[in-house]
Amino acid sequence: xxxxxxxxxxxxxxxxxxxxxxxxxxxxxxxxxxxxxxxxxxxxxxxxxxxxxxxxxxxxxxxxxxxxxxxxxxxxxxxxxxxxxxxxxxxxxxxxxxxxxxxxxxxxxxxxxxxxxxxxxxxxxxxxxxxxxxxxxxxxxxxxxxxxxxxxxxxxxxxxxxxxxxxxxxxxxxxxxxxxxxxxxxxxxxxxxxxxxxxxxxxxxxxxxxxxxxxxxxxxxxxxxxxxxxxxxxxxxxxxxxxxxxxxxxxxxxxxxxxxxxxxxxxxxxxxxxxxxxxxxxxxxxxxxxxxxxxxxxxxxxxxxxxxxxxxxxxxxxxxxxxx
Amino acid sequence: xxxxxxxxxxxxxxxxxxxxxxxxxxxxxxxxxxxxxxxxxxxxxxxxxxxxxxxxxxxxxxxxxxxxxxxxxxxxxxxxxxxxxxxxxxxxxxxxxxxxxxxxxxxxxxxxxxxxxxxxxxxxxxxxxxxxxxxxxxxxxxxxxxxxxxxxxxxxxxxxxxxxxxxxxxxxxxxxxxxxxxxxxxxxxxxxxxxxxxxxxxxxxxxxxxxxxxxxxxxxxxxxxxxxxxxxxxxxxxxxxxxxxxxxxxxxxxxxxxxxxxxxxxxxxxxxxxxxxxxxxxxxxxxxxxxxxxxxxxxxxxxxxxxxxxxxxxxxxxxxxxxxxxxxxxxxxxxxxxxxxxxxxxxxxxxxxxxxxxxxxxxxxxxxxxxxxxxxxxxxxxxxxxxxxxxxxxxxxxxxxxxxxxxxxxxxxxxxxxxxxxxxxxxxxxxxxxxxxxxxxxxxxxxxxxxxxxxxxxxxxxxxxxxxxxxxxxxxxxxxxxxxxxxxxxxxxxxxxxxxxxxxxxxxxxxxxxxxxxxxxxxxxxxxxxxxxxxxxxxxxxxxxxxxxxxxxxxxxxxxxxxxxxxxxxxxxxxxxxxxxxxxxxxxxxxxxxxxxxxxxxxxxxxxxxx
Amino acid sequence: xxxxxxxxxxxxxxxxxxxxxxxxxxxxxxxxxxxxxxxxxxxxxxxxxxxxxxxxxxxxxxxxxxxxxxxxxxxxxxxxxxxxxxxxxxxxxxxxxxxxxxxxxxxxxxxxxxxxxxxxxxxxxxxxxxxxxxxxxxxxxxxxxxxxxxxxxxxxxxxxxxxxxxxxxxxxxxxxxxxxxxxxxxxxxxxxxxxxxxxxxxxxxxxxxxxxxxxxxxxxxxxxxxxxxxxxxxxxxxxxxxxxxxxxxxxxxxxxxxxxxxxxxxxxxxxxxxxxxxxxxxxxxxxxxxxxxxxxxxxxxxxxxxxxxxxxxxxxxxxxxxxxxxxxxxxxxxxxxxxxxxxxxxxxxxxxxxxxxxxxxxxxxxxxxxxxxxxxxxxxxxxxxxxxxxxxxxxxxxxxxxxxxxxxxxxxxxxxxxxxxxxxxxxxxxxxxxxxxxxxxxxxxxxxxx
Lengths: 324, 611, 450
Description:
- The structure holds 3 protein chains of 3 kinds.
- By secondary structure, chain A is of the alpha/beta class.
- Chain A has 2 domains: 2-124 and 268-322, Periplasmic binding protein-like II (D-Maltodextrin-Binding Protein, domain 2); 125-267, D-Maltodextrin-Binding Protein, domain 2 (3-Layer(aba) Sandwich), CATH 3.40.190.10.
- Chain A is 35% helix and 19% strand.
- Chain A has 12 helices and 10 strands.
- In chain A, β6, α7 (187-197) and β7 form a beta-alpha-beta unit.
- The longest helix of chain A has 14 residues, at 53-66.
- The relative contact order of chain A is 0.21.
- Chain B is flat.
- The two termini of chain B are 33 Å apart.
- Chain B is α+β, with helices and mostly antiparallel strands.
- Chain B contains 15 helices and 19 strands.
- The longest helix of chain B has 44 residues, at 15-58.
- Chain C is 54% helix and 17% strand.
- Chain C has helices at residues 10-39, 72-77, 171-187, 200-231, 236-250, 253-276, 291-316, 319-327, 332-360, 366-369, 396-406, 410-449; strands at residues 46-53, 56-70, 86-92, 103-107, 111-115, 121-125, 129-138, 142-147, 152-156, 160-164, 190-191, 196-197.
- Chain C is elongated and about 95 Å long.
- Mean pLDDT of chain C is 86; it is low at 1-5.
- Chains in contact: A-B, A-C, B-C.
- At the B-C interface, α1, α3, α4, α5 and α6 of B face α1, α4, α5, α6 and α7 of C.
- Chain A: This is Phosphate binding protein.
- Chain A: Pfam families: PBP_like_2.
- Chain A: Keywords: Signal.
- Chain A: InterPro entries: PBP_domain (IPR024370), Phosphate_ABC_transporter (IPR050811).
- Chain A: Residues 1-25 form the signal peptide.
């Protein structure tokens, strides 16, 4: 929650507009000119979020173009792997699609004596997907809970088992709702569980597939399916549902402007975790990589994956903190 | 070929060189022996190492709780006290004097409890209506002495003056209205409950009774994890857990004392792993596998029952597909096919074993799953038509011209059958489509749903077909080996006595190869139990506990593959996953050992018959 | 020998039918793999049309990927005009600056001005991927493209991978292009999050890890086999060893992965780092998953295959040969080394090759010990130490799992998975063919010598 406070503070400061462009104009927060860094070499390894995988690959491509000697390895098996890898020391960058939980932080602290540093690098949204022939256009958070949750801890919604309960008629009345989702290693799963289920339990009939694409593919193949996955999934044969934060609110599609304004309820910050000792500067490779990721150029690349740049006030404070 | 490097040295007259040579040869022999023996024993070492390593990761799960003797603290520690909930004015009911006031996390409901255990649940948004629920937390003859939230504030523990401890849940009813419901009693304490402290971030609690006994509980279990004399002065005071739950603090007027507690994995016990557990927020006790979440207050739910059942379910359906296919095909290739074709066909089927399972899993997930959903009826039709085809052929063939009658047994009938099967397949597709439109409102699958049979696209049928195909070659090759090893003297003898080929098969070959077939089934089973990628990719990984053919499953192997990379090292989750690995190990070990014993027996049988 | 009334038996026909069914499945599977895998790189006709629906009026250019008939019932359920069955086509539009690119379904009924203009060109660019250009104009340092959404785009010549006016190409030209694309697929590294480009690192990773595994498993496995068959007396211990070998073969491969992560990576790798790479800590060298651990895990996994094959090969050799050796005064080692092993070589080789082909398709245990979705730097290099054992690798099997389930551009990635699977199958098939050849070759040699 702290993150959202930071974001909203940043947004208020810049007048609640479509973040980056407006904020950059005439503000002293703009990035410092990058010093002409010497080409880096060596190995930099990253382990973590599946959601950030494509973004890491894109950043990697642009970054390695400048430092051809650098070997940047990327492993993406889920956010939880980042915490393990950082505290075991098996990776130096830990992309995560959520904040670390106290147990993970404690583990890291036991090992190194200080806390890991979380650097917000992008805003992402979860989208709710249904088959393209599904006439439904919007869904409320409470209805989502009814579909996915075993115990209604958010809104106490009774279970929703068929499409009639979502207001569809005709043949849809008898069609059951088949719910797809991600597996437990993913930050997507955790985020959805927090936002929609209030940390309740999933029904055991919710199908857990081990990949973001697998979820959307399964929805595209099954007419009565619904699934949640990152918004960046490009696949024909499915459509997004607009989401109503509460039953009275207007339905909101997962578009960039709604993520930045906070109207879309399933938007979240994505991070890269670092192992930075408080009194030491970051190693050159990590510093340069983050400098690139947080630069205007690096943030602009987010659009290709359907993600949204981090508000620039947040960026500025991070740069200060990391001495970039 | 032994001529050019004969081990016997050429004529050499000098004795000393001969002696040197002999000793060198002896040394070499010794060295060779040592090398090879060490390599042999290294295998057993490797196996033991795996087993012991897995065991060493699991054992801490079952380590009993230990508590130090209490130490007095010189400097008192500040303890976090729960903020007092302010009562709205009109909530003060005239006849009601609350002793305990608790508020649920969303601050909408208030729970008030009076001295004798009368309780009132108040909806703050509709406070003027008074209590939405009234109940008694004790049996009214005793006093309510303690009432605390467990971590996460989803359930309550009450203690009374008779030493009774009870757990209560706040659950929504049909209208979405929260209600307090009685869940279970814990084992009764000997004296009145004095104070209860809830652990932080997990569902354990400590209880001190007025006789000075301390007990540690975990919400899933009714029996205490530890109990014993507290050895503190019995002046009333309060218990508190410090962050990390490794220190328990008792503070009263005379000062503070602390216990050091080693209780790392309270949520895991034999009972929670294998029996139904009533978890917070669930309507009844169930077998649940749903591991942690980012927020630590959520209980990890580790029941191995759904995973074990899932593994067995997948293996069962896979064997249902694989065994008939393999045994019949082995019988055919071994007993009816002439030689060059026989080895060709058996090689071809064994080649199928080299198909990487990740490819089969991918095909099942991407291609077969939607096809099966659409053509389920066609598949049923196909299997319905097969017996017709068999009986048709066996009726028709003797009535054909003699030149054609010679075809069976020559191998050419395979081509014919291939064509026939393809034709039947197409017919089944057409039939399935037509039936679907005319009888089942266009979709058999939704018709099944309307009949109360839950059909999921990623189901056990899909896994059975895909994994059956993957396991079949192994079963086949063992069966084929066994059948072709049957001593020829027996079949020839039977033939000489005038038995028909089919009688030979029925009376000689099949009875003799039964142990071999059983061994093959065992090997196939162990392979199916250990199979990972097909299950991971083709099922929805739903941890459910039924044997419905049309619903999914989650197997031990799949859980291990997806969850181990995420599990924090040394956490309960991590160790339970190692337990899963051991379980797999034990399953396959049993199946393999059985198969091995059967095969040994078979070999002895053959030797006896042959000799 | 006559076979009286064999054919009238229903069981005969049932077993024959079962065999035919298996044959049919094998054929179906091979056909599926070949058709999907080989079809990927064949240059398709490019189409252009206008699409008008619900206020939308756009020009579309691209390739038709598939067609779908939609029944009246389905149309009605979707809330669309359900007077007659309709058809829709899946079109690959490539990158468009307006963000409307990618794959999309179009209703056939709403399509007009369908044409296949010769100047329509498929442009493959390093960063943007595939583009479909309506018109193409050469500029000073590249080309200016006119795209279907009306945008003009400049592409530098050095960023250009492919320029393909497919509609103008003749058959031989298409064939040449097809082969060239296959070559590129096999010899370059992946682009666009593994959804385009080649699979060279995965091929190299697979081959290298498997070779290294063979080096590790061959001596131990063969020696253990010799021990079991030649040295060990039939004691209880030996029976236990034999049992554990057979059991080791049955242990689920994922358990080896668990062991590999916990023991090899954390324990063994961690101690190597402390001893030899202390200067680089906390940055791990061998303490993180990598090529060496992949090979070691695979070696453990395939050990039983090699042992069993060796034992079987040894048991085929007649006892008389050994006795002859001893009679001439040879020691046990000499008999083994000079008489028995040359005879048993084919069986051992076959076992090893079978082990290799099993390892090549393995995925589940490797996820833990060093196979990643993207590690384009090859673990071999031209400078010392040539082979980088600590590096993480890509393998074909993991690529199938990963690209198949996790790619964000699933429509583009899926056909590639079939191609990758085909490559893996061919690799395994080739290894097995080799094993069969070897077996036959040595058997003939043996027959000739005896």
